[in-house]
Amino acid sequence: EDAVERTGLGRFKHEAATVDPVQGCVYLSEDESDGRFYRFVSGKVGANGRLDLDDGELQVASVDSAGHVTWLPVPDPMFQGATPTRLQVPEATVFDGGEGLWWFEGTVYLSTKGDNRVWAYNTETQTIGTIYDRETTPDPDALHGVDNLTVSACGDVLVAEDDGQMRIVAVLPSGELKPLVQIEGQSESEITGPAFDPSGTRLYFSSQRGGGGLGGITYEVTGPFHERLADGETC
After folding, report:
1. 69 - beta bridge partners?
2. Is residue 202 part of a domain?
3. Helix and strand counts by DSSP (H, E) for the chain
4. Which of 68, 157, 158, 178 has its CA 20 to 30 A from that of 144?
5. What residue ranges of the chain have pLDDT lower than 70?
């Protein structure tokens, strides 16, 4: 099909997007050092759950000192006037280099590369906080250069690095960091697009530039990725 411009999603330096199928929203990150965290609230959700991306409102997050988020309408989403989209709402909170986004069971996870943080936004309580912050972690070398991310069926947040180390590191629900994958010999590349298959037993990701001038490479890693409990279940 031909590409379709979705003007409702706004004009800014888009990085990632993730869909909240429960509340009918699309969350959007912005790859700027003074970027913002946005959501598009669709005015219409089809019977099949598909969002109408032409009917709705673009909003930007304003976070108070307690982590409570207020979503404020963006007056000129397509930047048709003189003020860039991210600067149109003075109360909006800065997110330093928005990168990966993923919705999982009512939580939206967001990484910001400028300050090496991974955030969790609870869509029910409308509160946000960090699950990883390199400045405060006991082992700052365990994860840095945060970029793309995905979430496993057990709630582990898998974060790809963009700093030459070419690792995927899991942030467990306990806060523990667990390195999963490291690609050697491709320090000029970066890991992109981590995602699980529907069974949750196979992880896919790509090396953007590969090695040896061969171009991009896509990998499959076979699990299981979680310890099996006594009753045979995982997680």
Report:
1. 63
2. no
3. 0, 16
4. 68
5. 212-213, 227-235
